[in-house]
Amino acid sequence: MPRRVVLDCDTGTDDAIAIMLAAARPELDLVAVTAVWGNHAVEHTADNSRRVLDLIGRGDIPVYAGRGAPVDPPKGAPASKGSPEADVLPLPPPTQQVESRDAVEWLVETARASTQRFTLVPTGSLSNVASAVAADPSFVEAVDELVVMGGVIDRDGLLPDIETNVGNDPEAALRVLDAGFDRLTMVPLDATYRATVTVEQCATLRTVSRAGAVAADFIEQRIERYRRLPAMAGRAAAPVHDALTIAHLVDSTVVTLQRASVRVHTGDSPTRGRTDITVGTGDVRVAVDADASRFFDLLHESLAQL
Predict the structure, then answer these.
(1) CATH of the structural domain 3-303, one choice from 3.30.2040.10, 3.40.50.1000, 3.90.245.10, 3.30.1360.120
(2) Residue 101 half-sphere exposure, CB side, CA atoms within 13 Å?
């Protein structure tokens, strides 16, 4: 049986490729996409998700719009950061509408009614997931694995000190980490920056399908932005953060996991949103490395099927 998956996205370019990858894989059954604020306002992330699904001929997969703001930001907390990308992906307007039901309500009702557990993959702020847990703490029992794209371990000056998904709503991240999910996997920047896609590989993606060409466009946009960052040192390559979470579900060898404890800085302090990840002890499985070659092979193989 394919693994049932719900993607919880703040859809920009890397979430878009994660959606394509999840929809393409026969090992996965993409049940729904829930939209959350983060890269952009939730109305845009929901619309972008619909555009991507229409592009790949999967308009049958529903999209639910959820939270549009942090769960409980303290007064005086610094403003959350969005993405420098345009709010709307350069794809045709969707032919299907976003579902009228709220994403958090849908998540809770699905968990209560389901006789089969599902995998939940949040690739944006954790506001929807934290809200679902607050609405019904037993929600965690319906999730066989929670795979979070977020956090950062290394602080040698090359990677950002605060990763955006956790930094946008650290109170939500803390609640999710403390919620008691049976299996919680975190894919931080340390792994995603080791699974970059190059300009040359984009040229290869363009030849496989229309979806591959769109993905190549998105990645090349990211390359232009990322090559100026210290971690890339001018290289013509960029991480596709969110897609690595789906690759992990398809092939467990794509990332190297270690047990770790994770602490999130909350409140209105200057370190708000920072993750203290201590590898070697704890209940969270954290990706500490990634196989860039295997990741690209999966991406290439999957986009060719769309």
Answers:
(1) 3.90.245.10
(2) 13
Residue 57: left if φ>0, alpha if ψ -120 to 50, beta else—which one? left
Tell me the pLDDT tens digit for each residue of 72-105.
Answer: 998 888 888 889 999 999 999 999 899 999 999 9
Instruction: Please give the model's pTM, rounded to 2 decimal places.
Output: 0.97
Q: Give Rg (Cα) of the chain.
A: 18
Lowest mean pLDDT among 78-87, 201-210, 216-225, 240-249: 78-87
User: Catalytic pick from 40, 44, 241, 265?
Assistant: 241
DSSP letter at 141 equals: G
Q: Give the β-pairing of 237-239 and 196-198.
A: antiparallel
- Alpha-carbon distances, residue 219 vs 11, 121, 265 (angstroms): 14, 21, 31
Q: Report the relative pairing of strands 28-35 and 3-9 from DSSP bridges.
A: parallel
Catalytic status, residue 241: yes
Instruction: Write down the domain spans for the chain.
Output: 3-303
